[in-house]
Input
Amino acid sequence: MFSWHSLGALIIVEGTMDQHKYASVLADHVHPYMRIIFPQNDGIYQQDNARCHTARSVCAWFEEHQDEFTVLPWPAISPDLNQIENLWDHLDRVVRAMDPQPRNLAQLTTALESAWLNIPVNTFRNLIDSLHARLAAVRSAKGGYSGF
Output
């Protein structure tokens, strides 16, 4: 998770993300991060429409915390708009360029955490600042591929 102000922690989840694991991530990581970064309760949380994000229990959690931050409504298919995808690409490139390559899960976790902590401030700030241009490009492409 990240904002214009800072990178949050990289949350490594074992196995497949489901509504229960996602609820734990929200309660244990997202909520505290949002309270610190947005003490005036003016933060906006972005997520896609993955099944675990739209589960009834997760929607209920967001309802319970609606006074603390806003969940950005998200179109059904929107890969061009989701800035976190750019950070995942960045991590992928950094880890693939490592020599030697991570050989097990522990080494991969360490490599990912190191790559995450070394993302330059300009990288995530530029991603946040690019949202208006992304929206304009998607509108110009009539919802199709925008190049982002």
Summary: Residues 1-74 form one domain.
